[in-house]
Amino acid sequence: xxxxxxxxxxxxxxYTPARNWMNDPNGLVWHDGEYHLxxxxxxxxxxxxxxxxxxxVSPDLLHWEELGxxxxxxxDEQVFSGSIVVDEHDTAGFGKAAAVAVYTAWYPKSGLQAxxxxxxxxxxRTWTRYAGNPVLDIGSTEFRDPKVFWYAEGGxxxxxxxxxxxxxxxxxRSGDLKAWRRLSEFGPAGATGGVWEVPDLFELxxxxxxxxxxxxxxxxxxxxxxxxxxxxxxxxxxxxxxTPDDTSTAWADHGRDFYAAVSxxxxxxxxxxxxxxxxxxxxxxxxxxxxxxxxMTLPRELSLVADGDRVRLAxxxxxxxxxxxxxxxxxxxxxxxxxxxxxxxxxxxxxxEITAEFEPGTARRFGLQAGDxxxxxxxxxxxxxxxRGPREAAAGWHGGxxxxxxxxxxxxxxxDASSVELFGDGGxxxxxxxxxxxxxxxxxxxxxxxxxxxxxxxxxxxxxxxxLSP
Length: 470
Fold this sequence. Notes:
CATH topology of the largest domain: Tachylectin-2, Chain A
Number of strands: 32
Helix content: under 10%
Shape: globular
CATH superfamily of the largest domain: Glycosyl hydrolase domain, family 43
CATH class of the largest domain: Mainly Beta
Largest sheet: 10 strands, antiparallel
């Protein structure tokens, strides 16, 4: 049966495959007028296995065309996470401007993980494995997830790749994507409660002037809400070594369902976008959506913001989301909130952009309620939060710090059929959770006192799947 994209809990503004299992984003690249999203995919079923690369393309990071399996698993090799570069100068000999995938080949018979290549000369539609694979093999069973980029100042390729159980990131260089020489290591640092995976390294402007390099490391377990999570370090990179400004733990997202985030290579205008798997390894096996399993977060644009003597990562949903606004928004303002008050307008059966500003008043916490899911601000903890209902795989409260500024708290939430993403403190605090609300309808609430609602706009969003629906 053909998927309708209106199945229960199917996200309406987040990417999901038509059917079957999906996890980590892979091979993110802008190439020949398209954003490419590859991902860990099981072509054969709804559970993890047969790891291959699925593939979708988009003109705007929101409306995706699924192209099927790009690099399939074989009996001898499964295709784990990796990245894609556009080889403008034909350094590898696969053709000028060929797309080259650098991925982790996992060999089931030996358990070894090594780095391998595949290439495409037809806009990523078909792929050929390199006959000389693997190109980087250190005899390890925990050596994975290469992110490769062109380091223009040195005129060579850089690879960052995880030494998972050592909690280290190894840096390599190459002139041709085939022969790699080790440069340095980073780590252990920050959070080390689980294995390190899916690294990324890129330079970002600091708002107000200057730039810093950012090292991203996914961690499983040991994340901020339990299970898996993503941390980052800001610092300097000289073409050989990444040197962090400090090694304290900084989380990219304080929710439970943000993992394996990586950024697009070659995005237009030098912008840096990334996306993560909206999942958690502690819960993934128990989430039984059908006919698909797994979703991506909203794509987000990244920058750095000075905060005292350090810089912090800021994330903002891509501007194209504004083009999904549809229908008549519900707007409220200048009223006291105590207890729970239902909002007029549509039930929660689609996707919404919710912008809110509150004065805390005497309330302990306040915000929005969707069925048995609540999200908003906890005044005692000083944190933006989401709390999932008792039916969830990991019920409970997940949050991150956000200050009261000018006497008020402001946040934007994107509520979809099975997720909520909250952005506060100018994008410096983000909370992403999968949610499966029991009951429909939206309400504002305040607990333990009274809060002043300065403004609230609940804006319906159109579906990214409408052109695909029957």
